Amino acid sequence: MWSLSVPFLFLLTFGQTKTVTYDFNLTWVTANPDGLAERKVIGVNGQWPIPVIEVSKGDRLVVNMYNGLETHNSSIHFHGLYQNGTTSMDGPSMVNQCPVVPGASITYNFTLEQTGTYWYHCHTDWCYPDGQRQALIVHDNNTYFDFDDEYTITMSDWYHKLTEDIRPEFMSLYNPTGAEPLPQAFLVNDTQNTKFPVEAGKTYMLRFINIGAFVAQYLYIEDHTMRIVEIDGVYVDETTAEVLYIAVGQCYSVLVTMKNSTEKNYPMVTIADSVLLDTIPSDLTLNHTNWLEYNTNAGYAQATLEIDVSSELEAFDDMSLVSYDHETLLPEPDIQVKLTVLMDNLINGKGYAFLNKISYTSPKVPTLYTALSAGELANNATVYGEYTHPVVLDHNAVVEVVLENQDTGSHPFHLHGHAFQLVTRYPSYGADFYDYSAGTTFATYNSSNETITSNFPTYPARRDTLVLPPGGYFVIRFVADNPGVWFFHCHIDWHLAQGLAMTFVEAPMVLQQRLTVPDDHWEVCRAASVPDVGNAAANTVDYLDLKGQNTQPAWLPAGFTARGIVALVFSCISAVAGMASITM
Ligand SMILES: *[C@@H]1O[C@H](CO)[C@@H](O)[C@H](O)[C@H]1NC(C)=O
Ligand SMILES: *[C@@H]1O[C@H](CO)[C@@H](O)[C@H](O)[C@H]1NC(C)=O
Ligand SMILES: *[C@@H]1O[C@H](CO)[C@@H](O)[C@H](O)[C@H]1NC(C)=O
Ligand SMILES: *[C@@H]1O[C@H](CO)[C@@H](O)[C@H](O)[C@H]1NC(C)=O
Ligand SMILES: *[C@@H]1O[C@H](CO)[C@@H](O)[C@H](O)[C@H]1NC(C)=O
Ligand SMILES: *[C@@H]1O[C@H](CO)[C@@H](O)[C@H](O)[C@H]1NC(C)=O
Ligand SMILES: *[C@@H]1O[C@H](CO)[C@@H](O)[C@H](O)[C@H]1NC(C)=O
Ligand SMILES: *[C@@H]1O[C@H](CO)[C@@H](O)[C@H](O)[C@H]1NC(C)=O
Ligand SMILES: *[C@@H]1O[C@H](CO)[C@@H](O)[C@H](O)[C@H]1NC(C)=O
Ligand SMILES: *[C@@H]1O[C@H](CO)[C@@H](O)[C@H](O)[C@H]1NC(C)=O
Ligand SMILES: *[C@@H]1O[C@H](CO)[C@@H](O)[C@H](O)[C@H]1NC(C)=O
Ligand SMILES: [Cu+2]
């Protein structure tokens, strides 16, 4: 039943649509994509990079995943797919399913109602930076634009250490400021110096996806103009752009028409956003040249940048895009969810991330299974536990989320189950957009300020991952027309691990009527010894009694700061060192 060599794929045709089946056996393999260090990565059927999933609209996708990792739990999230009616197939462990433990397997099975550029990745604690992430393309035979050929082009940061070795250093008393782990390299198509063969005069659709853990990247192609046609699976009116800024979790599809001359190969340049990096190690190359290869005899010159890579580039602003279907701005919301982003230390001295002072902490029962087992109490957010930060949404409510950033870093927030309208953002685009200057007060959104509301777009852009600017705010809207449990979180995997997440529980009564979870998903819970009924504390008797729920660590006593902790840590170290020298 399980294929042992290359990704095995069989197709059953039912008229126009078909079932596309992938059998994935996850095992550790070694890889050295930057040529600097061989490391262990999560492979599929003995291979890495893992396969690009390619399907067409209307197809049924079946992924049978066996966890052969022996030491790590896993799962798969299909990033950008709404899973409309199939929320149990969404993938995040302890949100929509139990973690798949070593030796267990799970089947994801759903139909593709969307088209476009997506990706898939492990969505269990600290897992996809170890390599379990790849593109997922839903082909569309009816695009509104024409092109001759296409390339899927992933980009990512790359770490030489396993996340299990990064974790204790990052979430540590010795890293109280929460400085993010620095990558050792950057990859394009899971390698470097990639050459994309092109034919003169033809128009290519280039699908860019940032599948990294942390760092956003700028991208441009020398002497070629890009025409954006899709963002995160949503078609937009064709719009030209010279430079893209692609945060982790974001996708851009562009059309590029090739020159008629084949005299030269042209650099496609990626530049990591160094503003995100705490320090820039001298041996970390931020800019990389790949090529549109017109002519294999023409030579491959490295791009010469006219800018300093450690400063920001002026990139295209996604707020100015118009969705191709011209969906109009949603009306005044039925519910406004206001979320303040904050990074701070808790009593253990480690750095955490918060939305309204809650650092997301996994419940004892996956939130979806609480919603399914709580009866009418599923409408009461209490049952999901305080630290999953649940917000229950009425069916078809217009939801407005206001994100206010009290952090000096930018955060790429991703919503599962929906694309949202980009309503307004502060600051507007400018050269210092991603470079928060200390001392400025954090911006707050005022919904009664007509200078702001009168400038809302008529046909807002929609996407599933936004970039929340440092110290600024972002306002988005969507309709709760997809009953399910949907995670909303920063896509910087290190920040997610610090708790920068919350949960929408959408129309739980409708969900209970409509959803049937397949047996093998319940078996995943049994294999992991994770309860699959009860509230967040696994209480099946009194759903409103949360005694025993998982909690975030306590707050620091008032007056303590990260600087104080460092001082405390070092005085403790010297005290211990002193004791050590005495006892010697
Ligand atoms: C997965 O791959 C490993 C390594 O090749 C193999 O030992 C194991 O039997 C495979 N498991 C399944 C279920 O295919
Ligand atoms: C896998 O998940 C189970 C259930 O949450 C947990 O008990 C176990 O420690 C996890 N294993 C690893 C290696 O993280
Ligand atoms: C996938 O789901 C469909 C519809 O529920 C079902 O008919 C089919 O048997 C399932 N396939 C697998 C492999 O589970
Ligand atoms: C779209 O085109 C591809 C390739 O020509 C074909 O395999 C597929 O069946 C088509 N899909 C639909 C829904 O027409
Ligand atoms: C991109 O990587 C895949 C392997 O994952 C490889 O098959 C393909 O040829 C690469 N594309 C280019 C243009 O190098
Ligand atoms: C390439 O040649 C075609 C046909 O002669 C012409 O229409 C087109 O404008 C040329 N493209 C460029 C970029 O010069
Ligand atoms: C990076 O940019 C510098 C400055 O323009 C250039 O000298 C170098 O060749 C570039 N490296 C790559 C790999 O593009
Ligand atoms: C949810 O339950 C709590 C605890 O019993 C109660 O105080 C609260 O009013 C309930 N909320 C709703 C919306 O019913
Ligand atoms: C309304 O918003 C504009 C633009 O951000 C700002 O300049 C102005 O001061 C605000 N007015 C009030 C009364 O807050
Ligand atoms: C919000 O805007 C309204 C209308 O301009 C203004 O009256 C009010 O003072 C503003 N509130 C804050 C907190 O700035
Ligand atoms: C989900 O499907 C329903 C129809 O069943 C539709 O009304 C709704 O817009 C869809 N929502 C999303 C997010 O796809
Ligand atoms: Cu973040």
List the helices and strands and how they pair.
Layout: E1 9-14, E2 17-31, E3 39-44, E4 53-56, E5 60-67, E6 77-79, E7 105-111, E8 116-121, E9 133-139, E10 149-158, H1 163-170, E11 185-188, E12 195-197, E13 203-210, E14 217-221, E15 226-231, E16 234-241, E17 244-246, E18 251-257, E19 266-272, E20 287-293, E21 335-345, E22 351-355, H2 367-373, E23 390-393, E24 398-405, E25 411-415, E26 420-426, H3 450-453, E27 462-463, E28 465-468, E29 473-479, E30 484-490, H4 493-497, E31 501-506, H5 508-514, H6 519-528, H7 562-583
Bound molecules: 2-acetamido-2-deoxy-beta-D-glucopyranose (NAG) (11 copies) and copper (II) ion.
Domain Plastocyanin-like: 26-142, 149-296, 360-508
GO molecular function, one term: copper ion binding
Family: Belongs to the multicopper oxidase family.
What does this structure look like?
- The chain has helices spanning 163-170, 367-373, 450-453, 493-497, 508-514, 519-528, 562-583, and strands at 9-14, 17-31, 39-44, 53-56, 60-67, 77-79, 105-111, 116-121, 133-139, 149-158, 185-188, 195-197, 203-210, 217-221, 226-231, 234-241, 244-246, 251-257, 266-272, 287-293, 335-345, 351-355, 390-393, 398-405, 411-415, 420-426, 462-463, 465-468, 473-479, 484-490, 501-506.
- The chain has 584 residues and is mainly β.
- It has four domains: 1-139, Sandwich (Immunoglobulin-like); 143-316, Cupredoxins -  blue copper proteins (Immunoglobulin-like); 335-528, Cupredoxins -  blue copper proteins (Immunoglobulin-like, Sandwich), CATH 2.60.40; 559-584.
- The strands form six sheets. It has a six-stranded mixed β-sheet, with no helix packed on it.
- The longest helix has 22 residues, at 562-583.
- The relative contact order is 0.13.
- The structure holds 2-acetamido-2-deoxy-beta-D-glucopyranose (NAG) (11 copies) and copper (II) ion (CU).
- One 2-acetamido-2-deoxy-beta-D-glucopyranose binds at residues 201, 259-260.
- This is Ferro-O2-oxidoreductase.
- Belongs to the multicopper oxidase family.
- One of its GO terms (cellular component) is high-affinity iron permease complex.
